[in-house]
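We examine the record.
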Amino acid sequence: MNKHSIAILTLLCLATAVVSKAGIVLNGSNANLVIEIGATVVTDGMINGGVITNNGVIDNNGDWANTGTAAVDNLVKFTGTSAQSISGTTDFQTVHLDNATGASLAAGATVSVYNVLELKTGTFTTTGGTLTFLSTAVDHCAIIDNFSPTFSGTVSGNVTAQRYHATAVGTFDQHLMGSPVNNGAFSDFLAVSGSDGVAVTPTADCDETQLDPSSNYGTVFQWDESLVSSCHLEGWVVRSSGGTSNGRGYGMAIPGAGTVDVTGAANLNASYAQTGLNNSSWSTTSLQGNPYSSGWHLLANPYLASFDLTYDANFDNFVQIMNTHGSFAGTY
């Protein structure tokens, strides 16, 4: 532990708490480490069997082992000069990696991130453990920051990305979903069904409320506007095997509210492309009298991060986003 940090932390030694050259060791469930607001504790390692109350910053230069209380708030940095290991179970709020030799999850380690994993320098290796990015509400999901200026770090191994969804109202349980991990399996989102790659069959009069009795049907749908001839519903193709295409959106019939968990390699490339985004120049009208026209495509954010839309000169500057809940539920 850095000798200058002793004045800005509080150790409540109800059990055994040791500040040593090797770092901080909290022995026993009654051992508490309290870091005050605005304070930074620099340590050569952390072994926690008690409670860490982090109101400031932990700048950790060594290994991290946690068998105590899982939740660790605020910022924890991994800034060593040799490879750092993370073991046990920890629910981090914000993690910052600035170590050219990287940090890795030990076998069996379970780590979750509530806000952000900041990848300034080095590789965060997940092989052998589990790294989960949490989503607890429709307006919350943890992100990976490998895009800030001067950030050059990366993630090696699989991650689990969560996405919370509210109950879809007036949309036949349909949610617009995409995957922030590489080719995330459809079966990670929900139980799949139907014949894969086969489009639905509308009624002869293009009724929006039902399909032909002989129609294929499922729980995951991919949109292909080139298939439409007389009814817009012809463009919905059932997907029941394989995985998502990075950047493509899908309609998924997920009942109720809850969280989906998709596991795979995080999408960290600078860009992802979708091809075949043509306009087939058709127009149709449903039985209900609603007009539909070609040129629309279903896309999704491929990243564990928010993004700003930019428009290609070949596309209209117009985007619609599906609302599954709230006052505009069931509309775009």
Summary: The radius of gyration is 24 Å. The helical segments are 186-189. The mean pLDDT is 91. DSSP finds one helix and 25 strands in the chain.
